[in-house]
């Protein structure tokens, strides 16, 4: 496999949490999509509630669901992508809203527009008696570490990183496994043998996506060219659109993004091109949540598939464990294909391609196929 362009350029578990994950149907991605749809019904209502209760905080504002008198309350601080990034942060907030709806607990988000907002948002949350405050994304690692050290009685959570402290639970995901399946799906679908990957910010987390994706493409056809580019952002949709434009112009017909709200630019560019030339065959692959709704256009839907990252589910499970069994402080809980922490939806994949994906999926779960996690030492 050749990479045409690359620019800008442990395992610990909680028995109750993993048992809850393993109780789900790991082989039914369509069922997972149904669950997502049901959750989104709750989320749509919750989003309205959060909007009605939003306030101008010291940083990027906040919103909440649930009663102020709830017996358990959780909060999250977003990364720069924001709570409505249609991806990573939104998945976390959707899970928190679903938890609030199911349990009667209170949930609140504190939105960050840049890294300068992280500490002020955590400080604001720490004054409001939340049982757990979650930092969403590896960019908040330092902020969580600092806040945990200065607030030893407050419980924190970090997603996509590890903070070694007794008052912090770390939630991590085998993103490379789902990305591998996305790479295989792209390779099975491309008609031009040219594929693109758009990353957000170069980091161990996004390298995991890139490495898995490239390995999946190579598993199907090592002669396919993959154009890898980074936006150096998780929020700049214009940069995403510019990168996608260049990739499509160079001949790519399938592009996967692991870039948060930057991916909205990919969707915009794909839609614009298809509306200008309906006979063109272009596909985008979503990330973190089923993003098929982003692919609607007059001629159908251009989102081929999406990798799922059950951030919201992980937060719900960690929260319920803390509420019922005690806070799992100091633990690093890993979620992968085997326990439904990550996955791929069928979306618009052909039945033939989906059958191959299911075969590869099972091989990974059974340990017959090992997916590389990183391209280099971090």
Notable features of this structure?
globular, alpha/beta, 378 residues, Rossmann fold, seven-stranded mixed beta sheet, 41% helix
Question: How would you sum up this structure, described in words?
Answer:
- This protein has 378 residues and is an alpha/beta fold.
- The protein folds into two domains: 10-173 and 310-339, 3-Layer(aba) Sandwich (Rossmann fold); 175-309 and 342-365, Rossmann fold (3-Layer(aba) Sandwich).
- The chain is built from eleven helices and 16 strands.
- It has helices spanning 15-22, 29-52, 88-103, 118-126, 141-150, 175-189, 204-220, 237-249, 263-276, 311-324, 351-365, and strands at 2-7, 62-65, 73-77, 106-110, 132-136, 155-159, 168-173, 194-199, 225-230, 254-258, 283-286, 296-297, 300-301, 303-309, 332-335, 342-344.
- It has a seven-stranded mixed sheet, with helices on both faces. It has a seven-stranded mixed sheet with strand order 2-4-3-5-6-7-15, sandwiched between helices. A two-stranded antiparallel ribbon has the order 12-13.
- The longest helix is centred in the N-terminal third of the chain and has 24 residues, at 29-52.
- The model is unreliable at 1-58 (pLDDT under 50).
